[in-house]
């Protein structure tokens, strides 16, 4: 499982960068950090990694991307966060990322998209 709890936040950020094929500034913006901070997280030579709220956000995004990668292009999995959705009262998934209580909602919507493809 690419986003399992056994993986460190640093490993998950590295997986996201490789999997999504978007620019570092684009990924950094979704993660809510500067491009330089993302570069530090990605660097094998630096021990720094996401912690606290940053680590939570990385894991939420990675779990959603892991579901969406079966139905969207790599870059599309990142674009998805910016799309207003009827099932979110025209809010974007991006708008829910800062609220831990919304994690199940995001997971459910991403999982439903995957299930629709299978169905």
What does this structure look like?
This protein is an all-alpha fold and 119 residues long. Helices cover 56% and strands 0% of the residues. It contains 6 helices and no strands. It has helices spanning 9-20, 24-31, 35-42, 52-68, 74-79, 103-118. The longest helix has 17 residues, at 52-68. The model has no long low-confidence stretch (mean pLDDT 93).
The general outline is: globular
Strands, total number: 0
Count of DSSP H/I helices: 6
Strand content: under 5%
Task: Please bin the fraction of helical residues.
Answer: 55-70%
List the main descriptive attributes of the protein structure presented here:
119 residues, mainly alpha, 6 helices, 0% strand
Secondary-structure blueprint of this entry?
Layout (H helix, E strand, L loop, with lengths): L8 H12 L3 H8 L3 H8 L9 H17 L5 H6 L23 H16 L1
Helix pairs in contact: 1-4, 2-3, 4-6
Summarize the structure.
The protein is built from six helices and no strands. The chain has 119 residues and is mostly helical. The longest helix has 17 residues, at 52-68.
């Amino acid at each position: 499982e690419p986003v399992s709890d056994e993986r460190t936040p640093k490993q998950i950020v590295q997986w996201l960068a490789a999997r999504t094929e978007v620019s570092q500034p684009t990924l950094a913006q979704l993660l809510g950090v500067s491009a330089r901070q993302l570069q530090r997280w990605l660097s094998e030579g630096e021990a720094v990694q996401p912690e606290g709220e940053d680590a939570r956000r990385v894991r939420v995004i990675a779990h959603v991307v892991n579901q969406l990668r079966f139905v969207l292009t790599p870059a599309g999995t990142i674009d998805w966060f910016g799309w207003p959705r009827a099932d979110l009262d025209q809010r974007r998934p991006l708008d829910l990322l800062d609220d831990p209580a919304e994690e199940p909602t995001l997971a459910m919507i991403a999982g439903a998209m995957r299930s629709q493809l299978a169905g």
